[in-house]
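ok so I'm stuck.
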Amino acid sequence: MTAPCRWLAHWSLALAGILLSAITLADAHVLRYPATQSPAQPLEIYGALDNQLIAPLLADFHARHPEIELVYRNLTTLALYRRFMSTDATPADVIMSSAMPWQYQIANRGLAKPLDTAAARAWPEASRWRHELFGFTFEPVVIVYRRDALAGATPPDSHEALLRLLTNQRQRLKGRVVTYDPWRSGAGYTYATEDANMSPRYWELVAALGGVDAALADTTGEMLDGLADGRYAVGYNLLGSYARDFVADHPQLEMVIPNDYALVTQRLVLIPKRAPHPDTAERFVDYLLSRQGQQVIRDKTPLGAIHTALEGEGTARDLRKTLGDALHPIAIDPSLLATLDTLKRHSLLDRWQREYTRLSDSGS
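replied:
not stuck anymore, here's the structure
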């Protein structure tokens, strides 16, 4: 399939123990927290966030507001966007997603309701757009590698070091590197766009990835599974929030936040203007931005708290202290819309394909 045809065919995003005493599950993708006080006040949330990661937040919020009948629907980023835009679907009260360009587009079209609370007014400007769209997590994009697979080689602690590793260990790493497929994955496409803007040597890195026949995956989970079972030696541009706990449970793996520059993605939350239950929606989003909600993010999830009063592992404050100017949160501004422009998207993906196949096509 040619690159343009493949682009048309794959216009899409890729983007546990779940406290069963407090939750009933209608299916694997829906969490329900029944109201324990009457009258019940409904709240329906659409989220592109795995159940086990959102459950601690939902449980804590529900404990604080037992009068709320809470339903959480876990969707893929693309399904969430399509469902929100559909006139046939029941509207949600809150939507949250890591697909930053699509969330920004919704707010930019005037489809989000402003939140006017003390927490919203105090929220860092870099993590919001007006008072309609809020980043509530802080998730670095990372490199993960197997220690045993890189024995005797210098582990990659930066994009430059990764480029050297792929170049110098090309034969050793053939078929043993994995990264996102930007054609199929919204996250992969977003990271490719940001990398191309950040690094003048990014296209050399793409060529080096192609030179080792890097596998192309749709999700961070897929990459982590391949690293754990030994299929891959190095994974590039994984979402750190998913990788952190996984790596902690697999001692043969090491997670690295690149020290030359580190992309950071933020999950964005908004209240639709047509939310059926705006009062409960406002209470939930205000909770996400509160110190109490952010403490749950810090203490019970790997998602990374943004609240300026909080510090500790994974918080924005801690990462800024450690990485300083190397930290590069993806901006919540009109530049996100450029990533949705059809011609620009097509141009970047075509170049990505050319660079990825350049070394193999040249026979070098």
